[in-house]
Amino acid sequence: MNPWFWWVKNAALTLLSLLFLVLGVETLIASYRLNNPLTFIMGFFSASLIILISVVGVLYPVMQVFSLFKGRK
Length: 73
Description:
By secondary structure, the protein is an all-alpha fold. Helix content is 89%, strand content 0%. It starts with a helix and ends with a helix.
């Protein structure tokens, strides 16, 4: 595997995860404006799941880059 492809893949994953993180936070904020308690619960938990998956998507490339630099020493 080419080293530039590895960097592009990790950068794309990070940027896409940050986009979904922003989407999850906006969904979470919007769920607090709902009047129906059932739709609030549905919006709250869906936003929490989006945020959780996005954080994992951000942490994975960070850990990959950290292990790459740690292995070079």
